[in-house]
Amino acid sequence: MIEIRELHKSFGDLEVLKGIDFRVAEGEVVCVIGPSGSGKSTLLRCINLLETPTAGEVVIGEDVVTDPDVDIDAIRRRIGMVFQQFNLFPHLTVTENLTIAQRRVLGRAKAEAERVAAQNLERVGLSDKADAYPAQLSGGQQQRAAIARALAMGPELMLFDEPTSSLDPEIVGDVLAVMRGLAQDGMTMIVVTHEMSFAREVADRVVFMDDGVILEEGAAEQVIGSPGHDRTRRFLARVLDPAAAELD
Length: 248
Fold this sequence. Notes:
By secondary structure, this protein is α/β, with parallel strands linked by helices. The chain has helices at about 40-45, 70-75, 95-105, 110-125, 140-150, 170-185, 195-200, 220-225, 230-240, 240-245, and strands at about 1-10, 15-25, 30-35, 55-60, 65, 80, 155-160, 190, 205-210, 215-220. Residues about 245-248 have low confidence and may be disordered.
């Protein structure tokens, strides 16, 4: 479904992506892990052209996303993205947050947009918050609403950029449970995450990035349980057992 070929991205003199080759099959869940600053979020943002690659190609289906003549709005309608921050409109109710893009971008009638919104709020366990405003929700509820908003557009692909990093540990599980459900439903997903238990349980494949390159990729149990690259081992040691890593 997605093919990335020799992808480079620079910000001035800083080269963030240094020749990424990457494929994702339809229905596959791929978790991207690695230290901060390794280029994980930039990779996601290049897939839907929130960042314009310096060189290389991004292909989704048969569409070359990086072609200057591509209809990027049409491409973005096929891709849902969930950020670290929830980015809900504070002055709109949850339902209104879910219907505004449906009506303005997809041209759906109000009643149909509200039906789709209700369906997706039920999917993420927020049917009882349909008329609430974002400020009345917990962080985990806001993130689940953001996921429902993305799903309401009917995406073929979901991108998650560390969706639990801003949440209190006790509510992370609610968001991960929603993501597990999407994986079970066959949604194609690329997830940048530090949640190794989620990656081990849900991912079909784990990709380890460092300093703008992919150093290792494979089945979750292989990469997380028995990494082959020394840099991967050192990263996982710090993530899985920070106290031990500090004593080392």
